[in-house]
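ok, trying the design again with the full structure, not the truncated one.
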């Protein structure tokens, strides 16, 4: 790619997003990196490369989030989007092992974290879509959101909300293709990455199957830059192969 690109990253305080920022910052075709995060994201000025990094603090669950980005999407129309928002557990709630463990509050919270930010960001991004605009979108999903691949059960809220995210991507791929034929939207399973999300479960991971955030970020960039029209609306593995819904 020779044309300068604006890259948007949501969930910017996550480990994978932070690694993406560092890698994108040294890409010669990246002009601006818009970093969206509920928590403040600090940028080390000594580590900045050729791109301009623009951190924006916002909460997708507030009505003001969209208003905050009105001028931003006009000034920096996105060419590449990485939506990294998601949650598996927090300090008080672990993934449900059985039906009895489910509760409405956690299901709502999982939807708020795993689905709504992707919807809200898509509503902003589509303002920039034109017949000629070249947009590629990656939502970080998970293989456990695949219905046909589910052989173990459990993790109810996480599986259900990731499946909902996958359906969102399928819908987006259809709607956006009508408005902007060059647009490609996919969900990607990044693999088990050494982050806060996976930390409680790392002891059960097979040797060689826990990946660094830097490696995962590099894989996400590779998937992004090799997307084709045939990939549109698909759930992809980190190696670019198609996973079953």
């Amino acid at each position: 790619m020779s044309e300068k690109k604006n890259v948007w990253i949501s969930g910017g305080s996550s480990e994978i997003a932070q690694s993406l920022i560092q890698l994108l910052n040294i890409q010669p075709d990246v002009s601006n990196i818009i970093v969206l995060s509920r928590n403040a994201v600090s940028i080390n000025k000594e580590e900045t490369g050729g791109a301009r990094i623009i951190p924006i603090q916002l909460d997708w669950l507030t009505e003001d989030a969209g208003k905050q980005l009105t001028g931003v999407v006009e000034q920096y129309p996105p060419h590449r989007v990485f939506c990294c928002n998601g949650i598996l557990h927090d300090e008080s709630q672990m993934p449900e092992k059985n039906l009895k463990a489910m509760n409405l509050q956690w299901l709502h919270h999982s939807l708020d974290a795993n689905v709504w930010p992707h919807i809200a960001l898509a509503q902003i991004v589509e303002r920039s879509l034109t017949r000629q605009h070249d947009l590629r979108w990656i939502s970080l999903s998970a293989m456990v959101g695949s219905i046909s691949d589910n052989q173990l059960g459990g993790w109810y809220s996480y599986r259900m909300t990731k499946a909902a995210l996958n359906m969102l991507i399928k819908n987006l791929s259809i709607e956006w293709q009508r408005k902007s034929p060059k647009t490609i939207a996919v969900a990607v399973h990044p693999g088990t990455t050494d982050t806060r999300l996976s930390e409680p479960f790392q002891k059960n991971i097979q040797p060689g199957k826990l990946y660094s955030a830097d490696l995962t970020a590099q894989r996400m960039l590779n998937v992004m830059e090799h997307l084709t029209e045939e990939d549109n609306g698909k759930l992809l593995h980190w190696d670019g192969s198609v996973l079953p819904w």
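Keeping the full-length input from now on. The chain has a mean pLDDT of 92.
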